[in-house]
Every structure is written in structure tokens, then in C-alpha cells.
Amino acid sequence: GAVVSQHPSWVICKSGTSVKIECRSLDFQATTMFWYRQFPKQSLMLMATSNEGSKATYEQGVEKDKFLINHASLTLSTLTVTSAHPEDSSFYICSAAGTRGRGEQFFGPGTRLTVL
Amino acid sequence: QQQVKQSPQSLIVQKGGISIINCAYENTAFDYFPWYQQFPGKGPALLIAIRPDVSEKKEGRFTISFNKSAKQFSLHIMDSQPGDSATYFCAASRGYGGATNKLIFGTGTLLAVQP
């Protein structure tokens, strides 16, 4: 099946610092990548959708200046949480859709962010 | 209209029993209905999916039943095993949820299969 990786799998940072999370499609080209946020015992909340080479489209209520998304290649998207605060602590999951299967989303393993 | 309602919130089933999780949607433009399985600390994994041109799809112990007129679909796990204990999410979208067709997720069901 299609493989999507995320790095790091977990990160702890101090309040006020920025953190970058990478999402890679390992065996297919991802024309579209999605970033989700998941709080404990809750569902996945879509943050933004990005198409390769274009600016990301953010969901209502998501601060685009705080959550910077770059999708510079067909296999890599990055999410940068700028000036992180404890309330940004969450599980961040990416997914990728493109040349594998019928275009459905394949999910990464997630990144646990803890902001102290 | 974009919501997908999922029930129950949690479910306890004995080993060997049948687990049933239900979802309902409003948007009749949805034509792709996947189910995802998520273990703690992991990303969701596609379990099984159905399109509205069929009323049932079976893959091993997992079956989706789809009722287009009622705008409902459900996941049945036959012969439930302790290894099936996880959170299950239903979802719906237009197309296959790629490109600009967003997946709309249900609220999730925490399944515990007791040995």
C-alpha cells in the first residue's frame, strides 16, 4: 500500500519556539496533502489542504500565520507551528492523495507535539 | 449538512461477538464512505470503504452496510477479537476524498473487545 511518513514522531519544545513537522509520501506522488489536528479522545479536525506548488487553503478558524504549510514538492509537505504555546499541544496528522489508488487519502503515523 | 453523525461513542463487546457502529450523513452529494481504524498514538488506517452503488461490502470480518434512502451506513465486525480494540471513525466525501474533496469525519467510536 501507499506509505506516508512523518518526522518527528514526537517533539517537546518550549513555549515561544517554532516547530517544523515533515510529511513525506514515500512511494507515490502526492499532488494534495492534508494536515489534521487531533485532541485526545476527539476526531480529526482538518486544518488545511495544500496542493504542490500552491498556497495552502486553511479551514475556518485556523491561523495561517501560526501554522505555516509548505508543499514544495510532490513528496514533501511541512507544517511549521510558529511561536508555539501549550494550547498548541496536540497530535498532528498528515495525509496525502495523488497517484496511488483512486486518489484517496493515505494517512501518516502522526506527530505528538508537547509545548511546555 | 456537512456533518457525519456517529454512534455509539463507546462500545464493549465480548470476544467472538459482533461489533456494530453506525453513521448518518446529510449531504446527498457524498459518494465515498470509508471507515478508519486508529490505535492509540497512531494515524488512522483505511479499513474498508463503500460507494453508494452497492448496499453491502465485505472484506474478511469487516462489512459495511449502506442504506442510501436513509442516508446511513454501518460497520459490522464479525467474530470480534481483542486486537480489534481501537477507535473507529466513519467518514464521507465526494469523489475519493482526495484533491479538493475533503473527508468529513464522524466523532469516533472507542471499541473494547473483552477476552
SSE diagram, text form:
The complex is a heterodimer of chains A (116) and B (115).
Chain A: E1 4-7, E2 10-13, E3 19-25, E4 30-38, E5 45-51, E6 57-58, E7 67-73, E8 76-81, E9 90-98, E10 106-107, E11 111-115
Parallel strand pairs in A: 2-11
Antiparallel strand pairs in A: 1-3, 3-8, 4-5, 4-9, 5-6, 7-8, 9-10, 9-11
Chain B: E1 4-7, E2 10-14, E3 19-25, E4 33-38, E5 45-50, E6 56-59, E7 62-67, E8 72-77, E9 86-92, E10 104-105, E11 109-114
Parallel strand pairs in B: 2-11
Antiparallel strand pairs in B: 1-3, 3-8, 4-5, 4-9, 6-7, 7-8, 9-10, 9-11
Strands of chain B, total number? 11
Largest beta-sheet details of chain B:
6 strands, mixed
Apparent shape of chain B: globular
**How much beta of chain B, percentage-wise?**
over 45%
Give the C-alpha Rg of chain B: 13 Å
- The low-confidence runs of chain A, each spanning 5 or more residues with pLDDT under 50, are none
Termini separation of chain B comes to 39 Å
The chain-level structural class of chain A is mainly beta
The percentage helix of chain A is: under 10%
What's the assembly state of these chains?
heterodimer
Helical element count of chain B? Answer: 0
Please state the overall shape of chain A, judged from the principal axes of the Cα atoms. Answer: globular
Briefly, what is this?
Chain A has 116 residues and is an all-beta fold. Chain A has strands at residues 4-7, 10-13, 19-25, 30-38, 45-51, 57-58, 67-73, 76-81, 90-98, 106-107, 111-115.
